[in-house]
Amino acid sequence: MITLCGFAISNYYNVVKMALLEKGAAFTEERVMTGSKDEAVLSCSPLGKIPFIRTPQGAMCESHAILEYVEAAHPGLSLLPADAFAAAKVRELINFIDLHLELVARELYPQAFFGGTVSESAQVRVRKQLEKNIAGFKRLAKFAPYVGGESFTLADCVAYNNLPLVGMATRAIYGEDLLAAGGVDYKPYTRLVGERASAQKVSADRKAATLAMGAG
User: Fold this and answer.
1) pTM higher than 0.90
2) Which long-range contacts (CB under 8 A, 24 or more apart) does 176-184 make?
C-alpha cells in the first residue's frame, strides 16, 4: 500500500491525492511538513519537500514522477490517453501549469496568503511574466469540458488544484484575477471538476486542515 506523505494544505500534495483517489488506489496519509530535517524524511525526499510516497518497493519524491507511477502501477480509470501523442499533450499541460503558471505565481504567495510582503519590483516582474504565460496557456487549454479535452486526465488533477491559487494570488496582489483578465474562463471548469468525489474529498480535507492550522 502507498503512504502519501505531506499535508492537506499543499496543492502539490492534493494533486497526487486526487490522482490516487481517482485511480481507486489503496493509500494512507502521513502528515509531514515541508523542509523537515528528519533523516527518515530526507531518506525519502532528499530536499525535504512534499509530497513524497512510501511504497513496498521504496520511496519516491517529485509530484510528476509520483503521478506517472500511480498511473502505471494501478489499474482502474486511466488518467493518461493510450495514444502516445495524446499522452504527451497531457504531460505538456501538466508542465505548463506547474512551471509557467503556479511556480511563477508562487512568488506572490507570501503577501497574498501569509501576511508577508513582496517587493513592488517583484510584483511588476511577476505580473509581466504571468500575463505572457497566461496568453500561452490559453492557446493550450481546451476546457472542452476538461482542461485537455473530452476526458478527465492527470492534467485535471494539476489544473483543479493550481488554477484557483493563481487566480486568488493575483487578485490579492493586483486587484484582479489575471487568469480571468487574460481570457481564461476557468471557473465553470473548476465547478465541473469540483463535482467529482475526488475533488470533494480533497477540498474538504484542505478546508479542515486550514481551519485546524488557524486554530493552532
Assistant:
1) yes
2) 178/127, 178/130, 178/131, 178/134, 179/134, 182/131, 182/134, 182/135, 182/138, 183/138, 184/134, 184/137, 184/138, 184/141
